[in-house]
Amino acid sequence: MQKQKRKGPGRPGPRPPPKPATNHKPNKQHNQKRAKELSRSKLAATEMEIQELRAKYDEIDANSIERFAQFPLSQKTQKALAEYKYTTPTEVQRQSIGHALQGKDVLGAAITGSGKTLAFLIPVLEHLYMNKWSRSDGVGAIIISPTRELAYQIFETLKRIGKHHDFSAGLIIGGKNLKFERTRMDQCNILICTPGRLLQHMDENPLFNTTSMEMLVLDEADRCLDMGFQKTLNSIIENFPPDRQTLLFSATQTNTLEDLARLNLKDPVYVGYGAAKPTAAAAAAAAAAADTKPGTSTAVLALPELLQQSYVVLPLEEKITMLWSFIKNHLKQKIIVFVSSCKQAKYLYEIFCKLRPGVGLLALYGSLHQDRRIAIYEDFLRKSHVVMFATDVASRGLDFPAVNWVLQLDCPEDVSQYIHRAGRSARNKARGECLLVLTPSEEEHMIGTLREQLHLDIRCVHIDPKKLFSPRVKIEAFLAQFPELRASAQRAFLAYLKSVFLMRNKRLFNVLSLDLDAYAQSLGLAVTPHL
Ligand SMILES: Nc1ncnc2c1ncn2[C@@H]1O[C@H](COP(=O)(O)OP(=O)(O)OP(=O)(O)O)[C@@H](O)[C@H]1O
Q1: Rounded CA gap, 233 and 70, in Å?
Q2: Whose C-alpha in 141, 261, 294, 318 is 20 to 30 A from the C-alpha of 155?
Q3: 364 vs 345: CA distance, rounded Å
Q4: From the CA of 194, how far away is ligand 1's center (Å)?
Q5: Rounded distance, CA 141 to CA 444, Å?
């Protein structure tokens, strides 16, 4: 297991015992007596604090809370919040923390970058603290995230906000030594996991026991519950005690009513849904009005106000020229470029490295080795001028500071994916821009859907041909010189077509509308690969 801590997230090893307040040399017996007294008085203080806090739970009034200090939170949590300068709760934190402290199930929906992570981490820490959870009590809370990077990020936030608590936490995300994780897991109080790896441990690890578990959190809940993870999550949930507390958070809560039933929620509180709470009638109306699954309920969908959104329409074969020109015109910016497949991200990274645009380049996609993925994620966090080519492993939840531009080079599958990608910019009241690149056949349906579901006035921009620089000749020369680059271009070509072919929304994605020869040439390929 990565970074499993014996004493409290973020603090390696036990604290030294307090020094006795005497000026003569203490003997061993005296020391032991003193330690016992201290631990007894510490326990009494804790018990008193717990009782006082619990007595205030029923009085929490979200609307009157302006500062974290007004929430009945333990000294340990308050201290860490203050140290990291979290003084004012965001709206989703204000509205959900009280309900979660009271032990209610919560479905929280709030725009990207609005602080949902603390909205569930604070209640998790408080729940364990209030129940005097100790290392020997085993797993008390499990937090599930759809991607490894997001799980890692939640773990890092937990380390900061839980630094004064005495809980142990573990990151269970795959790509690491299974045996190592296995031996440590049952000693963890809080586990942050990706669904596949969690299920693998449940299936293969006899030591792993979730019967004591009292809290389940699904971050990016709609993604955790969607088709891709459905079977895995069903099997995971079977192993959890039914009377646990469940918190679901996402910027896009597009859960079906069956999804929510599967989770066995008890009279959940909806935060951020407005009038769109998922009653059966509302769900049916939403499904009829929008292009969604029947029985789907959708929270109010929105993007940050300070995010400027625009789109451009281009034939597929002009995307690389547009991308190259865009990067050359934005060298002092932090940019994420989203594409549909790992192989495209890899090829764009390789060929753009050869072309040397004059800004740092990175690529983040699922088929990279885990250590590499985390190193790239951290590199992108640190850098202020950089372009990262990414697949949707980077689209949900990742909190990169100061991203100036999100470029959706390939059309997102649906409105949710658009929102999550775009939301990597303009986080937590910062400004940002998002440019969506569409082919002519994608324009009408995608823009119509965005306008209808997001009530969005998305601006169409026309590119000045004088500002376009084609790197085609150079790309062809590189491909002639480096066969491995040519093979990578061929794989990117096929991967893109496969992704379009496999898209469920056939009104939006039409592989037959594409000029394959022109697309192959734009990637630098003299011969169109066989399908
Ligand atoms: N109360 C707060 N005061 C100041 N900053 C905050 C507060 N809460 C969270 N933040 C900061 O806001 C940023 C975004 O938070 P977070 O990543 O939790 O957003 P999110 O709502 O989960 O986004 P996404 O929908 O993309 O997952 C983080 O950098 C976090 O440290």
Answers
A1: 36
A2: 261
A3: 8
A4: 20
A5: 45
pLDDT tens track of the chain, all 531 residues? 334 433 344 333 333 333 333 344 456 666 777 666 666 667 776 889 999 999 999 999 999 999 999 999 999 999 999 999 999 999 999 999 999 999 999 999 999 999 999 999 999 999 999 999 998 899 999 999 999 999 999 999 999 999 999 999 999 998 777 777 777 787 899 999 999 999 999 998 887 889 999 999 999 999 998 878 988 999 999 999 999 999 999 998 777 777 788 888 889 999 987 655 554 444 444 444 444 444 445 566 789 999 999 999 999 999 999 999 999 999 999 999 999 999 999 999 999 999 999 999 999 999 999 899 999 999 999 999 999 999 999 999 999 999 999 999 999 999 999 999 999 999 988 999 999 999 999 999 999 999 988 888 899 999 888 888 999 999 999 999 999 999 999 999 999 999 999 998 888 898 888 899 999 999 999 999 987
Burial of 464 (0-12, 13-18, 19+ CB in 10 A): exposed
Q: To test the ligand 1 pocket, which listed residue (81, 116, 218, 338) has its Cβ within 8 A of the most ligand atoms?
A: 116
Cα-trace Rg, the chain: 25
State which amino acid sits at residue 351: I
Closest CA to 61 of 49, 70, 52, 53: 70
**Residue 251 Cβ contacting ligand 1 at under 6 Å:** yes
> Hey, CA dihedral for 519, 522, 528, 530, is it positive or negative?
negative
- Nearest-CA residue for atom 14 of ligand 1: 113
Q: From atom 30 of ligand 1, which residue's Cα is the shortest distance away?
A: 115
**Tokens representing residue 465 in the block:** 């041909």
Domains and CATH numbers, the chain: 48-278+291-300 (3.40.50.300), 307-522 (3.40.50.300)
What helix, strand, coil percent values describe the chain, rounded to 5? Answer: 45, 15, 40
390/436 Cα distance (integer angstroms): 15
Cβ of 423 closer than 6 Å to ligand 1, yes or no, is yes
